[in-house]
Every structure is written in structure tokens, then in C-alpha cells.
Design goal:
Number of helices: 8
Helix content: 25-40%
Shape: globular
Structural class: alpha+beta
Order of helices and strands: EHHEEEHEHEEHHEEEHEHEE
Oligomer: single chain
Radius of gyration: 19 Å
Distance between the termini: 38 Å
Strand content: 25-35%
């Protein structure tokens, strides 16, 4: 009889989880796993069948009361045999007693609903080369763009906390600081008015997070973050509950390519939805 076991993933296996996500068409960042690993080192679970990795899930703890499920994948050749459900239970057990979030792909949303998850909004991925010309990228009066890494980390962490249910300093420091990424902040009179990070991926470079005081600031950030790509496509996962954000990607000429529902089990966290123009990661929130 085949032996199935679930244990914490090694650093190499977190890389394997990233590769599996890529095969699913999720377009994870090339170096995301290094930031993921510091978010919660024990939060990545791998399922092994007779010693061979066949499935995974991440169940990352944030603070004392929040958690996030991601990377819920079983290899196609072992699906339908119950291994995925065992991984699911192991992940949820790890987050017991917490409000739990996830981004559910369309064909799994009914199953998540059966596990007590309720949709809060949809994250729609828009991709393409941002349109230029006219006033595209123009900043509001008094607002300037600066290298996000030039600001104190305390300012970045406090700003991020407006848009995420718990502090996530270790993850954020790695997310912003990894090589090959670019971070841009919008500032007016010493106050942060927006922030975004772009990272290389298998396909279109991903922008996330994208925070902004308004649509004009968000547009300027997108153009600044896309500038190094020399006409290459970018992608951003936009909450459809933010109407100006949805209007912006249409004005930029970006096209929808993927959709997942942000769902929660437990009280829906209060965050600044009006300023959330693009989520950080569908895997870790």
C-alpha cells in the first residue's frame, strides 16, 4: 500500500511548489519563494507519496489571528485520490482558530464555499503593455515618485499595514529587497500617497502590491514600474471591488487573463479597499 505523508517543505521543495504553480499557469515571480520562506518558515507543506513529492499547500500565519492558504496543488497524475483533501485539512488545521484568507480559482470556489469560505471580491489579472500618450503617467500637483527602498522601512511597513490584515514585516522586507525588483513610492509633503513593486516572472512581469491614494497616482506608478521593461507586458491582480482600479486598467489598455475570488473563513478583515489597486500575491495575500 502506498504511503502518503505530509511535512514541512524544504527550501528546495518551496522552489518545486513555485514550478508547479508555473505549470498551472499562475505565473509566479521568479524569486517569490525567497520572500515566501521568511513569511512563515513552517507554513509550506509538501505531500509525499512513497517519498516522492506529489502535492503541496501553504498555510501561512500572520500575527495572532490571521492566516492565508495558497499553493494548493496536487500533481495531475494523482488527482482524485484524496491526497489533495488531506493536504487541505493539514493546512487548515495549522490555521485553526484564525480568520483565513485565500484566492480561489474559479473551478474550486464552490468547494471552498462548502468549507465555510465566503467571497469578498474577485481579483482579476490584467496584462499588457500600458498605453502611453496624452496625460498618461502625469502626477497630481505636489506628488513626486521616489525609489521605494530609499524610504525608511518603518514607513513602508506602516503603509502596507493599511491594506493587509496583519503586520508582515519579514515578508515585506524580502519582497521589496530581492534583486531584480523595483519599488516606487509616491510622496507628497512627506506623506506616502502610493507604493508599488514590480518583479520578473515566467511571463509578464507582475506589479504587486499597487497602493494609491487615487487613480492618477496609481497610473503614474504603473508607468514608472513598467518603464524598465522597454515595452514589455506587465500584469496586475486588481480587486474588482475597487471601481477606479478597474477603470484604470481599461484606460491603460490591459486585458483580463485570469481570475480568482478573494475568500475568507471568519470575519472579513477591514482594509483600505479604496486604495488597493493591486494585491501583492495570490499565494500569500
Amino acid at each position: 500500500m502506498a504511503e502518503f505523508e505530509i511535512r514541512s517543505a524544504s527550501a528546495r521543495e518551496i522552489g518545486l511548489m513555485r514550478d508547479w504553480a508555473d505549470e498551472e499557469g499562475w505565473n509566479p515571480g521568479d524569486s517569490d519563494r525567497w520572500a515566501f520562506a521568511v513569511a512563515d518558515p513552517e507554513g509550506f507543506l509538501i505531500g509525499r507519496l512513497d517519498g516522492e513529492p506529489v502535492g503541496c499547500i501553504s498555510a501561512v500565519r500572520y500575527g495572532a489571528g490571521f492566516g492565508f492558504i495558497g499553493f494548493y496543488i496536487t500533481r495531475p497524475d494523482v488527482r482524485g485520490q484524496g491526497y489533495g483533501m488531506r493536504l487541505w485539512r493539514a493546512g487548515m488545521d495549522r490555521l485553526q482558530g484564525r480568520t483565513v484568507g485565500l484566492d480561489g480559482v474559479v473551478d474550486q470556489q464552490e468547494n471552498y464555499g462548502g468549507s465555510g469560505f465566503v467571497r469578498a471580491w474577485n481579483n482579476v489579472r490584467f496584462e499588457g503593455v500600458p498605453a502611453t500618450g496624452g496625460t498618461a503617467g502625469a502626477l497630481p500637483e505636489g506628488v513626486s515618485l521616489v525609489d521605494g527602498r530609499s524610504l525608511s522601512f518603518g514607513r513602508l511597513a506602516a503603509y502596507d499595514r493599511r491594506f493587509f490584515p496583519q503586520a508582515r514585516d519579514a515578508f515585506l522586507a524580502a519582497w521589496v529587497g530581492l534583486p531584480g525588483r523595483r519599488a516606487v513610492a509616491a510622496v507628497r509633503d512627506g506623506e506616502m500617497r502610493g507604493f508599488g513593486v514590480v518583479r520578473p516572472c515566467s511571463g509578464a512581469s507582475r506589479i504587486g502590491p499597487l497602493y494609491a491614494a487615487d487613480k492618477q497616482v496609481a497610473a503614474a506608478l504603473v508607468h514608472a514600474l513598467a518603464a524598465d521593461g522597454e515595452g514589455a507586458a506587465v500584469a496586475v491582480d486588481v480587486p474588482d471591488c475597487n471601481r477606479p482600479a478597474m477603470e484604470l486598467v481599461a484606460e491603460l489598455g490591459l486585458s483580463p487573463t485570469f481570475e480568482a475570488a478573494r475568500m475568507y473563513s471568519g470575519p472579513v478583515p477591514e482594509v483600505d479597499r479604496a486604495g488597493l489597486f493591486g494585491v501583492t500575491s495570490l499565494e500569500l495575500g
